[in-house]
Amino acid sequence: MKSNIEARQRERIYTEVHPSAVVACRGLAAEIATLIRTRAAEGRNVVLGLATGSTPVPLYRELIRLHREEGLSFRNVITFNLDEYHGLTPEHPESYSRFMREQLFNHIDLPASQSNVPDGRVPRGEVFAWCRAYEQKIAAAGGIDLQVLGIGRTGHIGFNEPGSARDSRTRLVTLDSLTRRDAARDFLGEANVPRYAITMGVGTILEARKVVLLAWGEAKARMIAQATEGRPNETIPATLLQDHPDVRFLLDPAAAAELTRIKHPWLVTPVEWTPPLARRAIAWLSSTAKRPVLKLLDEHYGEHGMADLLTEQGPAYNLNIRAFNEIQHTITGWPGGKPNADDSHRPERASPHPKRVVVFSPEPSDEMLGMGGTLTRLIEQGHSVTVVYLTSGNLAVPDEEAMVAADLVLEFATSQAGGAATAARRVRDAIAAKQSTAKGQDTADTRRLKGLLRRGEARAALRNAAVPSGTERFLDLAFYENGRYRQFRATEADVAQVAAVLRELKPHQIFATGAGQDPASVSGMCFDVLRSAIQQVKTEGWWQDCRVWLYRTPDKAWAAHEIDMAVPLSPAQLTQKIQAVYQHKSQRSQMPVFEPGLHEAWQQAEAAARSLAKTYDALGLAEYEAIEAFQRWHDDAR
Ligand code: F6R
């Protein structure tokens, strides 16, 4: 068996991988509760360092539950938050002060005088003195016993962006452009994201007696691997935690996915070479050695930690051929299965034909970005396809777009007869009333209008993709309609709605996305809702004949070894897909930029589909214009 220490040899920080964020947080909350109770029994205080953002939300929910259901009291607790945007009042919807009240403080018995969050209102000239006082207050409280951290995509802890010194203290900092872009959705546009923040320093954090960093979802995986396995350096501030004597990272499987022991286990321990692991390793070897699979030589295997595979199952020629064939068999122009064909080496079964297919889209446009070309093919090949939009997506519509729509309704309604004008006027007034620097939340009218706008775009896109009109469904799941970014909370009602659609349509094929995403993100939450709905229907007869395929939006393409079905697109099909994506006009510049220069959603979709084709080409397979890729999902996956 693998030695645990051997597998962790590259990790300079102790990492724990838990089945989910909720499970990880349950353990940490129990640990915090024990600390609080032990200290209370001794008549002593506990000082907690707290973080905001979506990451710690499940921890705070569990602490609230412990307070409500198990009588955990916070009267002997003092808290210090890591950071706050500079320039925001504590009432601003995105202020960390408000976040803490809404997510934790308002629901427990922590005395108000014992919670401390940096004050975003302190005038620039007074910030230095204010920060020193914050540090002194921490010291006067006895120092931080346990510091909870999240991690940003820049590797920041608190708001210590790349370049922050190891001995930095609480101070005013300029936010990194990537951090601002990541916050753009919360602030309804990047222009509204503050440029500065007050944050505890790296030195302040390192003085905490215990540090626990939490990370969920695949977007964090690269940074987690670098922070854990890279050398300590100020360009990735989280690496500086390696110097701390009592630090650990709590991860979910998606955030842990880039750790060497998980991604390339053969590099750190002897492994059992199952066919899927061998295929994964050979695809990796091909890209690392920069040689097509069929040109890999024995020495390439030897030089890259795969000598035992060679000994067990070699020579290279045999291994290469086997892997090549397996990858070759993932390619199909028949995503719904090829009727009357031998399907023993095809990703999807031939019968039944046609199939009932359901495509779940977390927000309108996800389905086009991830699988627009495949959608068209499924229709052309005679399948009965229903696209189900899980949320309305109204939060992602910029005010400018809504203003254009409201003006249109207003002009139209006032030139005609009827009552739409009043509602349109209300929307215009509400948007105009939002201050430019402190944009509040949208009114119900505005959200409805924005949601309708996205419906219109979704229908236009479907028309472009040749999907028959009237077959789509808009579920407008309640968790989204009643929620805000980072704070969504799905309920049984959401699950019941999705389960009802599944029972009604009884699909043979489901296409979905969001597995492995941050569980607090829209797509992550939608996937969890779908998974729970599947739990409810999986004992029904029709389910036994249903397959689930995962697609991905352009921000995270599958690696070659992760792909179970690759659907090639011709140049004309790629153009058609791009035109369909283009219909989502309100989303043009709303996507997080994952490749410099690609700001538009359609550019990103095009680049992702082309790059998958290049990946296959580099492995030595046929050279296609573009590819859309899918992974088969099994209930026990993740
Ligand atoms: C928040 C903080 C930040 C976040 C990080 C991750 O107080 O200090 O470092 O922890 O940006 O944010 P989320 O959790 O939203 O992914």
CATH architecture of the largest domain: 3-Layer(aba) Sandwich
CATH class descriptor of the largest domain: Alpha Beta
> Structural class, judged by helices and strands?
alpha/beta
Strands side by side in the biggest sheet: 1-10-9-6-2-3-5
> What fraction strand?
5-15%
State the shape: globular
Quaternary arrangement of the chains shown? single chain
Number of domains: 2
Q: Average pLDDT across residues?
A: 93
How far apart, in Å, are the first and last alpha carbons? Answer: 22 Å
Small-molecule components bound: fructose -6-phosphate
Unreliable segments of 5+ consecutive residues = none
Number of helical stretches of at least 4 residues: 23
- Helix share bin: 40-55%
Q: Report the strand count.
A: 17
Could you explain how this protein is built, in words?
The chain has 638 residues and is an alpha/beta fold. 41% of the residues lie in helices and 12% in strands. β2 (46-50), α3 and β3 form a beta-alpha-beta unit. It binds fructose -6-phosphate. Residues 51-55, 82-83, 150-152, 156-159, 486 line the site of fructose -6-phosphate (F6R).
Write a brief caption for the model.
The chain has 638 residues and is α/β, with parallel strands linked by helices. The protein is built from 23 helices and 17 strands.
Which helices and strands appear, and what pairs or packs with what?
Layout: H1 4-7, E1 14-17, H2 21-41, E2 46-50, H3 57-70, E3 77-81, E4 83-85, H4 96-103, E5 115-116, H5 127-140, E6 146-149, E7 171-174, H6 177-183, E8 196-199, H7 202-206, E9 210-215, H8 221-229, E10 247-251, H9 253-256, H10 260-263, H11 275-289, H12 298-303, H13 307-313, H14 316-328, E11 356-361, H15 366-380, E12 384-389, H16 399-415, H17 420-433, H18 444-464, E13 473-474, H19 478-481, H20 492-505, E14 509-512, H21 522-537, E15 547-550, E16 565-569, H22 571-582, H23 601-618, E17 626-633
Parallel strand pairs: 1-10, 2-3, 2-6, 3-5, 6-9, 9-10, 11-12, 11-14, 12-13, 14-15
Antiparallel strand pairs: 4-8, 7-8, 15-17, 16-17
Helix pairs in contact: 2-3, 11-14, 15-22, 16-17, 16-18, 18-22, 20-21, 22-23
